[in-house]
Design goal:
With 432 residues, the protein is α+β, with helices and mostly antiparallel strands. It is 42% helix and 16% strand.
């Protein structure tokens, strides 16, 4: 996919591992690509049209089915792989296009939701990996908001303000990289917040208002109608996880002294009639090199952006021959799925099958426990059995220590009491 300015994105895959499914090219600057806005495009005013939908920016979503022994597509597990290029700010510390970036991100999420809803009906499960140049950091320094506010108050020349900021960055007075663990005051990036939390906070809304006003637009004209409804909607079902933050605990610098590029993933969305989804986990990331100037990066890498590399393990359930993968309970509903996202999976077929069998057994035992845990009498009996076995153990130990003092009859009685309490305890546990 390619933008009007010539910026392109691509997704490459191995034909030996994946079958190509549906492909969706998304123009993030075209309102008709959004289900949310397509029917209400006539409700957009001229300012909104010129601000958000005058230039194209590419997004790409493709579905890759994982090759398996099954010839049925509905038994395949799949990956939805996305790539995006979001519009950039002329100067990162002056994010005057922050609202455009937020709307383009929502256009991408809207398209992703549409593809997931459609394609998840045809695959056993569908996991998501989205990467791209989002041209925003995960956090902004408080100074960015202050600079926008100063520009609004003074109504000064942007070029003069930009020159001051660039000189401050060059001298080290202004820091473009924000460490969230430092004491520096920060503001959440609206784009990063939308992707990872699925909703914009009040601070982010205020930040968008400042960006709109500093760009010379009136916020009430920009944030009205369907666009405002879209920006304030909750996308909680599609909260994605940053692969690098997941592994390293924070986002690395990806562009000189800034963080602008990300790889996100979303655990599997499974069909209701399938009990087990593919297990998606990040098994490793390529560590970023030490911070370097833009000139050194271009000279060494040919680009001012550092390549991000993420190893993702996707282990698919293996059903035994003649056995249907979907396990159903007596009430004809599917068993719950445990998504493993924090431990690197083992993709050896034998060990994978044992792990899945253990998980299935655990799910069944948990279901049985859930159905019986409401019986308080059982829990009371189990507590008394545990107390009795503990007391029996203490008495048995005491009788052993006092071997020459206590009689054989007393020791036999204590032993019998201990064995009886343990047998009763085992009986209660077996009922659970």
């Amino acid at each position: 996919a390619c933008s009007e300015s010539g910026m392109g994105i691509a997704v490459l895959w191995r034909h030996s591992r994946f079958d190509l499914g549906n492909t969706v090219e998304v123009d993030l600057g075209d309102a008709t690509n959004s289900r949310w806005l397509a029917q209400k495009q006539g409700a957009l005013n001229k300012d909104q049209q010129s601000r958000f939908f005058s230039k194209g920016h590419p997004g790409l979503l493709i579905v890759l089915g994982i090759k398996s022994g099954s010839k049925l597509r509905k038994e395949q597990h799949a990956l939805l792989v996305g790539a995006a290029y979001i519009v950039a700010n002329p100067i990162s510390l002056l994010p005057m296009r922050l609202d455009i970036q937020a709307v383009q991100t929502l256009m991408l999420m809207d398209s992703m939701e549409r593809v997931l809803e459609h394609e998840s009906r045809y695959y056993a499960s569908l996991s998501v990996v989205v990467a791209g140049d989002f041209n925003v950091p995960p956090y902004y320094p408080q100074m960015s908001f202050d600079l926008l506010s100063k520009h609004i108050a003074q109504e000064g020349d942007f070029d003069q303000m930009a020159t001051t900021v660039m000189q401050g960055v060059a001298s080290g007075k202004f820091q473009t990289f924000v460490d969230p663990n430092s004491e520096q005051q920060t503001i959440a990036s609206p784009v990063y917040e939308l992707i990872t939390k699925g909703v914009l906070g009040q601070d982010s809304i205020g930040f968008l208002v400042a960006a709109i006003k500093s760009a010379g637009y009136h916020p009430s004209r920009i944030l009205e109608g369907p666009l405002y409804q879209m920006l304030t909607t909750k996308w909680l079902k599609y909260q994605m996880i940053s692969a690098y933050a997941h592994v390293l605990g924070m986002e690395p610098m990806t562009n000189a002294l800034e963080t602008l590029d990300f790889v996100f993933f979303l655990p599997a969305q499974r069909r209701p009639d399938h009990s087990r989804a593919a297990r998606l986990a990040v098994t490793g990331v390529l560590a970023a090199p030490p911070p370097q100037s833009r000139q050194k990066l271009v000279a060494g890498l040919g680009s001012d952006h550092i390549p991000l590399v993420v190893d993702v393990g996707l282990c698919t359930p293996i059903s035994k021959s003649g056995e249907v993968e979907s396990q159903r309970r007596e009430d004809n509903t599917t068993s719950p799925v445990v998504n493993i996202t924090h431990s690197p999976p083992s993709c050896d077929s034998a060990s994978q099958e044992r792990i899945l069998e253990m998980l299935t057994s655990l799910e069944r035992r948990l279901e049985t426990l859930d159905s019986k845990v409401s019986r308080p009498g059982m829990l009371v009996e189990l507590k008394w059995a545990l107390a009795a076995s503990t007391l029996g153990s203490v008495l048995f130990a005491a009788s052993t220590m006092l071997l020459g003092v206590t009689s054989a009859l007393v020791r036999q009685a204590m032993t019998g009491f201990l064995l009886a309490s343990l047998l009763y305890q085992g009986f209660l546990v077996s009922k659970i």
